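During the no-cost extension, the postdoctoral fellow (Dr. R.K.) reprocessed legacy sequence entries with the updated structure-token encoder. One reprocessed record is reproduced below for audit purposes.
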Amino acid sequence: MKILGLAAPFGHDASAALLIDGKLVAAVEEERFSRKKHAKDQCPAESVRYCLKVAGLTPEDIDAVAFPWNVAALREKRLEYFFRIFPSNPSRAWKKFFRNRQEYRGQACFIEKTLASSGFGGLRPKIHWIEHHMAHAASSFFLSGFREAAVLSIDGGGEIVSTMIGTGQGQSIRKIKEIIAPDSLGNFYSTMTEYLGFEREDGEYKVMGMAPFGDAWKANLDHILWWDDQRKTYRCHDEYVWVPRSKRARLDKVYARKMVDEFGPERQGDELNVPYIHIAASTQKKLEDMTIKLLETYLSGELKKHGQVCFAGGCALNVSLNRVLLKHPLVKRLWVQPASHDAGGSLGAAVYVAAQNGERIEPMEHAYYGPEYSPSEIEAVLRSSGFAFEKSGDICEKASSLLAEGKIVGWFQGRMEWGPRALGNRSILGNPKVRGTNDRINAIIKFREKWRPFCPSILKEHAAEILGTDHPSPFMTLAFEVAHEWRERIPEAVHIDGTCRPQIVEERLNPRYYRLIKLFQQKAGVPVVINTSLNRRGEAMVCSPQDAILMFKESGLEYLAIGDYLVKK
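Re-encoded structure tokens follow.
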């Protein structure tokens, strides 16, 4: 089957993915085309057109459309939601109970608009409505290559459910436990993200990066999020988490006035200061503790059999949480979908439909499913850019020499990455040995907070020595402690807590990027480069040569290796 997945149902992170006979052919987020981060209130029309183009298909060829939302799931849980939320928010309870048809019409309109805007005309393939968390779970389990695994999906919320726990085996996923909103680890973390001065649904990773600077024991959040032994679930306090407008400190934020009364005003600026670093640390620890309780309560028996976990949903992008999961004695292998946030729902919905139809799903080994550009397309953009450029006979040799000299290099190659992590095709690269490199990238290129860490790309054959484990990590979705003898050798790739979020690079999956790092190793003595996304603060990751040149022009980046060309200021 040719299955087109669309997302997202909640007004942000629109995307499309195309599966042909169980093989992922294309996947891309709309923000990369629109240049509007998270593509808020946009339909993924350009993403659909791209997927069809790269596969050489027309709308007539599509057998099915899959969408990660299902009104039946909403109706199934609405009574439970009603009684849970009514005491604190009767208006929200009534709306969710009685407006199911309106919600369905809104989602159907989104699909209709997307198809109409992407060339389908009057064609309407069969639409498969997939439960939101089932789509997340499918995006992880069915693409992991595991025959059986424990499955976790945790985010802000789907139709009503915020957390789904289950097991995967063969072509099926079985639910064990569902937790409904307003009890939501995702909403808790997003609420704290806003209080800490960042944008929700975007700045959660900044809270994670801030947490190691603080002490979790110096900020008590037990009254905001706790474990309920009787119900065997976590609970959120409705007076603090994602509160209604009448209880908010600011109308445009979801945290409560109570929080300001207890902890002080919302954090401002880019500095690390007290008490906010401690609140960040406590927020992170709460997420970790609750997730481990869920795992131990509902998945211990399953994990004793095989030790394999598949994880998706927005919270799965929290690499510090994933490190805690992977360190748990019950867990031997952890596979995290690289687009675990709502953009990944398009892929998950499509994969779920394929599995239900008995198709063999090809495991996902890399994330290079976005657009690529020909040498002639790149050269045409460079000729009109006004910058000096030269065609190199060996761009890897040229770029590796610059990195060895301590230069910072933009790296634009091949197909763009799927998901929010730069994995060596739309990257800014630096020398991890040269102290101050991070500060330079943050200050004059990314224009972001100076305390933000960077990730290393590591050659596979050296990863176990550096990380102390041979666990796969191709997508920068996991964090590991760096071996002590390596912390001084690659200081700019190690966070304050001694960890890093690595991409382990295999030659067969990205030969050009692998060769660049190999040549750098020969010159600098370490098989590691700093790797961060090719964009500036608040922008979507670069997609096209035009995007790359604009970013190059408006930042302090001095060198850009784009295809076989080197651009310099």
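The chain has three domains: 2-146+340-356, 179-333, 375-568. The chain has a mean pLDDT of 97. The remaining legacy entries will be reprocessed before the final report is submitted.
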